Fold this sequence. Notes:
There is one protein chain. The chain is mainly alpha-helical. The protein has helices spanning 2-27, 34-51, 57-99. It starts with a helix and ends with a helix.
Amino acid sequence: MLDDLWKWGWGLTLLLNLLLAWALWTLRTAFVPRKEFSDLATRVALIEQEIKHLPTQRDFIELRDLVLAVKGQADVQQQLLSTVAASQRRIEDFMLRTNA
Length: 100
C-alpha cells in the first residue's frame, strides 16, 4: 500500500493541485480587488450624500396620514355643505310659495 502511494503519489498531488487551481480560478471573479472596492465605497458614499435630502419611508407614511386626515375633513365639510344647501332649498321653496 505504501509502495502504491509512493508510486502514484505524484499523480495524486498533481491532480489535487489542478483541482485547487481550478477552484481558485473559478472563485477569482467572486472577489473584488481592493482598488475597485475602494472606488465602489467612494461612489456609495457620494450617492448617500446626494440622496440624504430625499424623503424617507417615514416621511411618506406621515404624508399619507396627513392626506387622509385632510380627506376626512373635506368629507365632513361636504356633508355640512349638503345639509346647508338642502336647508337653503327648503327656505327658497317656502319663500317662493308664500310670495306667489
